[in-house]
Here is the input.
Amino acid sequence: MAKSSLGVAVIGAGMAGRAHIAGYRTASTTFEPGLGEVRLVAVGDANPEFAQDAADRFGYERAETDWHAIVEADDIDAVSVVLPNAMHREVVTALLENGKHVLCEKPMAPSIADAEAMVATANEHPDLVAAIGFTFRTSPAINAVKRELEQGNLGKPYFFNGHYWCDYGCDPNGPMSWRYKGGPGSGALADIGSHMIDAAEFLFGPVVEIRGGTLATVVAERPLPLGAAVGHGATAVSDKKEPVENEDVATFVATFASGSVGTFSATRVAHGLPNSLGFELFGSDGAASFDLARAGEFQFSDNTSSPATSGYRRVLIGPEHPYITRGLPMDFPGVNYGQNDLFTFETRAFLEQIAGVGSLPRVPDFAHGLRNLRLLDAVVRSSQSGGASVDVR
Here is the structure.
């Protein structure tokens, strides 16, 4: 039975943090009734200007500059943690130990040891929801492709080719930030490649082997910022520079438990591509592709067309596909949606798990976050051993 209300907070008011903040604001307006009141309680950020701006903009009751205040607050039930990866373990552990449900952004932690400790803490509190935010699992188009695969309309899956290409690291004078610190695997691979790997397993099932891992750093050092910036935003920089500690480019090959294979690439130095996630997949009886730049559609080919008109066709997402009906204010064929809407779907699913209502798919748990981190680690180990095969079963 649902509580009469759920108090929510977000720690981290940066780029992705604001998406969570907005997601909770609209979550109660979507899908099935019965969730109860969602109280927008607090936004936390070490930068008081960011915290207050987000709280005012999205209608939260207060802003906090110390995350401990959110941990200790009696009027908060559920918290999104959208902080630099190195902070996840400390903050998440404190939240769980103080009775708060947690939705932690990916990647789960800076190391497997940290993630294992977080899983152990979550297991000590089985009454709490401890979830990881792999937002693309709520994409209507990706779910539509998954449904076609599960229904056998593409036949036996053979090959997956995935990429996540961004350009936020192209400018060598772009300011140093936590994203450029942390060692091999913590750069483009963890930041955006983690999404790509998760999407591949979501569609094709578990990966059992990784090989051919390659990590490359294109920009060797970056200037220190003189001010604060949200996300990848620009700010004034000093003359002092520090070395970049992780990769700008990551590539590898994978084998799935089904015997199918996949090729993957992730980069933050893809000129002119601010946010380009995409994939192509092929089976014995069909194929499909997706491009985040055209989030409300996918391309599809199967054997149902006559030879004269066979080939790829564009499928526009609508009420016949997952998440659309009652997920959007205008849930009508051809009315599009974007990546921001996925955070509404994700936060709604998280709140439904807490309240024990609704029928949305569950948000991935901490064990899933640890699994994803092990795959990232396998890519790093493969690269460090000249591309050797790494078993991840």
In short: The longest strand covers residues 207-216. The chain has nine helices and 17 strands.
